[in-house]
Amino acid sequence: MTNPSFEFSRAVTRRPSASIINGLRAEDIGTPDLDQMLADHAHYVATLKETGAEVIELPPLEAYPDAVFVEDTALCLPQGAVMMRPGAPSRMGEVAEMEPALRAVYEDIRQISGPGHIEGGDILVTGREVLVGRSDRTDAAGVAELAGILADWGHSLREVFTPPGVLHFKTDCSLLDADTILSTKRLEASGCFEGYNVLHVADGEEAAANSIRFNQYVICPAGFPRTAEMLSNAGYDVVQINNSECSKLDGGMSCLSLRF
Ligand code: CIR
């Protein structure tokens, strides 16, 4: 059994830096506006805090344009934290920048030492297992090394696949409660969620799949009204946060925090 799945007492975030304009993106759909991103980030942090959680807010890192996307640097579990080994070379150095913050709260810190690669955006911790999607950023060797570490802690890891052209596994899904997943239809079609309750994002609102359940809230990117309404009707307390700037860099709600 893996827990907690959506009840968290802490989160780590990092403020975006001016270098965000140089962040990685699959496709150029415009330059992110730092002021708007800072405002959205502040709303995100305030929402996490509103649940009663402590938010450890780290300073901007000019040397790493994508450092605001802290989720990719580590996996945080009750037993300890695993420092990742990003598949994007420009993001490798973010891991060492994150480690001191996690050392302050965890006794057991492990490291993916390679040669494989794995990013936190490809990892979904549910109430029963740890799902890891192979992707352009996460390879078989990275998954195998993580599986060894998690076995020490009594977690079972199941390898699945991120759809082609999708950045991370969690670009297309999120956990709503221990057994319920919010997913795009294209990801669910792979069969990776058999045995779970699955709610689909509305057609044309695929980007809403990268939401997070954080304590009482489901935090969704704004601009996907049919998915937000579906979640409200299903009984979830939905908070919508503008994501126009992070989305220019393929980021959503999960990537902006480590949660534990
Ligand atoms: C990247 O390409 O690495 C960043 N621009 C976006 C990372 C988003 N991370 C995530 O969804 N976990």
Automatic annotation (TrEMBL):
Q: Which domain of life is it from?
A: Bacteria
Keyword Nucleus, does the record have it? no
- Residue ranges annotated as coiled coil are none
BP-aspect Gene Ontology terms: arginine metabolic process; citrulline metabolic process; positive regulation of nitric oxide biosynthetic process
Active-site positions on this chain:
H168 (proton donor), C255 (nucleophile)
Check the record and name the Pfam families matching this protein: ADI
Keywords, ordered alphabetically: Hydrolase
Named from the GO MF annotations, one term is: dimethylargininase activity
EC number(s) on record? 3.5.3.18
* Binding-site residues for substrate, renumbered to this chain: L24, D66, E71, D72, R91, R137, L249
PANTHER family this protein is in? DIMETHYLARGININASE, DIMETHYLARGININE DIMETHYLAMINOHYDROLASE
Record family assignment: Belongs to the DDAH family.
User: Would you tell me the protein name for this molecule?
Assistant: N(G),N(G)-dimethylarginine dimethylaminohydrolase
